[in-house]
């Protein structure tokens, strides 16, 4: 375990909390020291939920370690049941409390509480948040779901959406609509919006829709084996994947595939005159495995981008992403260290990043536009409006999300290019507000050497630095590096405007 400024995933008990917070009638008793209650903020501040997570903390302190922390846990369990009267409880320890080995599951079992209690064994120092969510849902399903008669009409369970999930709330609406169009009703959506009593009815559905493998695959595999329910393998993110998903559901159910594409605008927008200049843009992808795999297909097949690199942070999906990267003829980056990701982005110098909140910050530092496609995300990625990633409307949303940073970036570049123009300079005021153009008072250009941080032995002269700024921001970094390499190979340590153009001619061959 190592400390980091940023982390892509929290510890596994945060994943368990995502499941508990997504459900109703379930309570989580977490054996944790004072201070581990920070996780509440993820839901109330980042997701903007209007109520606290259903979690009771033991909040033991340093002075309690010399006494009976186990008794603190038992007291917390009893008080939590008496106060909240849940249909079921889950119990476990945070990463810090795991070190004192109090065995919350064993203690809760011996207490004889009047509701089902699901013990969680989440290895905090080997696994992460997505595993915690996946394992928690699996344990709840394994304890509560029982074989039962199928519904008279074809129904499906939606498996995987959780609290704090990237657009999970809206994806549920979109996938429900896709199924209803084929005459299929949703039996239970779990864990989002379900109760422990609902979990007991999972077996009544004819099949399961696995929406997010990171948080629902273990439960789906168990239900396939124990309840005889097949589950979908295709995640309907993007136009092609949505069509494939509908065909997969048709194969499972024997129904005719049906998909209304009336609302679909992405293909038209992608081929419109305004978008053709985006064709061939070099993009780098990073995030959770499911969203990266979906984004790679959309980028190449539906947007006309060139995927120059991809990777994921959740090692459970590493094999899938490595196989996909091989298909795209790029090298997969599997890492939990954002500095590794930043180094790879600098090396590849893409024109756009499709990533997480981390890559948004990296893009700001490197001057590369970034669209968020995956958790971890910040508050702006929990919009009040309807904004799914899945299905027909999800494809439209994705197009807007990806293209707008490029379009706005081009506008910024043009404004910067013309900022010295007599009409558009900073002191002129907005011409569309009736401001008259003012002559700009010119100041002499500096003649001394511009000391921009570069390689130790290479410096940029002022005229070259000024000319470099005329290059669009999304390729400026690559132009700078190529010029420095060109100069270094020829023993030139001062880059003039002539050196810049010589390097441009050299790399254009």
Could you tell me how far the N terminus lies from the C terminus, measured between alpha carbons in angstroms? 48 Å
Extended strand count: 14
Question: Uncertain spans, ≥5 residues at pLDDT below 50?
Answer: 445-454
**Spatial order of the strands forming the largest sheet:** 10-9-8-11-12
The helix content is: 40-55%
- CATH fold-type name of the largest domain: Rossmann fold
CATH first level of the largest domain: Alpha Beta
CATH architecture of the largest domain: 3-Layer(aba) Sandwich
Largest sheet: 5 strands, parallel
> Structural class per helix/strand content?
alpha/beta
CATH superfamily placement of the largest domain: Nitrogenase molybdenum iron protein domain
Number of DSSP helices? 19
